[in-house]
Design goal:
Layout (H helix, E strand, L loop, with lengths): L5 H13 L3 H13 L1 H32 L1 H23 L6 H6 L5 H7 L4 H14 L6 H30 L5 H24 L1
Length: about 200
């Protein structure tokens, strides 16, 4: 990768990682419901899973999709259905008492990492980054650098959303406000599907 492209790549990574999407919406809700420390496996699952996906797509999966584009289309709609299910669960989630929150479990590392493969925004980010910033054919060290940039940027950006959820806990004390928050997050998840399904 040309050194001249590193700053634009970092800018793209920040812009795409900090903007609302399924990952940020879910980690925000996790920060609110479970706190920052208990949301860390979810956070690292998002960032680690996304970076692994960058490597997998950059190394050769893109060629598979070029030969069989139906596979990418299937993943796109499986991801959309999964997001609809998550939005429904979030909208219907009853506010948890402190003891319920302590006993229930947030999304773990492996669940968050696996989710990246059906996350439409993740696919858009990766395909956009690879096609824009990597030479063709991409070398392994270029793909590794791309994955590292997204890993480091993602920890900061996605972590900021988790912290924002923690801050929101101070203001959302009663069950009604938590319910409104959960429904709002569910609607954001649904809104994140619109540009993806339109394409």
């Amino acid at each position: 990768m040309s050194p001249d492209l590193l700053l634009p790549l970092c800018t793209f990574a920040v812009a795409s990682s900090i903007t609302p999407g399924p990952n940020n919406t879910m980690i925000l809700a996790s920060g609110l419901n479970y706190g920052f420390r208990r949301s860390l496996p979810h956070l690292f699952g998002i960032c680690g899973g996304f970076s692994f996906m960058v490597i997998a797509v950059g190394v050769g999966l893109q060629a598979v999709f070029a030969q069989a584009p139906i596979l990418q289309l299937i993943l796109k709609y499986v991801g959309a259905l999964y997001l609809l299910w998550l939005a429904w669960k979030l909208a219907h989630a009853a506010p948890m008492a402190a003891e319920q929150a302590r006993l229930s479990k947030p999304m773990g590392f492996w669940g968050a990492a696996a989710f990246q493969w059906v996350n439409p925004k993740a696919w858009m980010m990766i395909v956009g980054a690879i096609s824009t910033y990597l030479p063709a054919p991409a070398q392994l060290n270029d793909v590794g650098l791309l994955a590292l940039v997204f890993l480091l940027v993602g920890i900061v950006c996605v972590g900021a959303w988790a912290l924002f959820g923690v801050v929101m806990r101070r203001f959302l004390h009663d069950p009604r406000s938590v319910r409104i928050f959960n429904v709002s997050m569910a609607l954001l998840l649904l809104a994140s599907l619109y540009p993806i399904l339109r394409s």
